[in-house]
Amino acid sequence: MRTSSVEQLILDLFAGQPVETAHFTAQEIYLQLKPQLPAVNPSTIYRALERMTRSGKISISDMGKGAAVFEIVGKERHHHLVCETCHQVITLSDDTIRPLFDELSRQFGFEMTTNHLVLFGHCPACRRKK
Predict the structure, then answer these.
(1) What is the pLDDT of residue 28?
(2) DSSP code of 36?
(3) CA 98, 101, 105, 110: dihedral to nearest 10 degrees?
(4) Least C-beta-crowded within 10 Å: which of 8, 79, 109, 114?
(5) How many Cβ atoms from other residues are within 10 Å of residue 117's Cβ?
(6) Which residues lie below 8 Å from residue 89, measured CB to CB, with a gap of 6+?
(7) DSSP per residue over 47-81, as a string?
(8) Is 29 in a helix, a strand, or coil?
């Protein structure tokens, strides 16, 4: 399947960021690409993101931004802890989470397709303030 110019620009946007921190809302992607593609409209971006999510090029998740965020599916899977108070994001290696996925698969015969786990809570600094 051929990658459209919009899809390629989206991939380039992600490629220019560290994998652990490259999480963009559709609106943020639109605003980043608008200078390069002045005629692009938000629906074009949404459709491209939908195609890219279905094809497994990017993933979609909730990072507590109030809108879904997208990120490129890279070779190094990672996961996050997000503080609900200060919004600090702690990146976890897949090695930390993989045993949980493996145990759930073993125990329930469940084939895991999640490739980006986000858990919400309160960081130590915010807990001390309470």
Answers:
(1) 93
(2) T
(3) -130
(4) 109
(5) 18
(6) 21, 63, 80, 81, 82, 83
(7) HHHHHHHHTTSEEEE--SSSS-EEEE--SS-EEEE
(8) helix
Q: Which CATH number fits domain 5-72: 3.50.50.60, 3.40.50.740, 1.10.8.60, 1.10.10.10?
A: 1.10.10.10
Distances (CA, A) of 118 to 12, 55, 102: 24, 21, 17
Instruction: Specify the CATH architecture of the domain 78-129.
Output: 2-Layer Sandwich (3.30)
Structural contact between residues 62 and 118, judged by C-beta atoms closer than 8 angstroms: yes
Q: Is 79 exposed, middle or buried (0-12, 13-18, 19+ CB in 10 A)?
A: buried
Q: Whole-structure pTM over 0.90, yes or no?
A: no
What is the reported pLDDT for 56?
85
Q: What are the domain boundaries of the chain? A: 5-72, 78-129
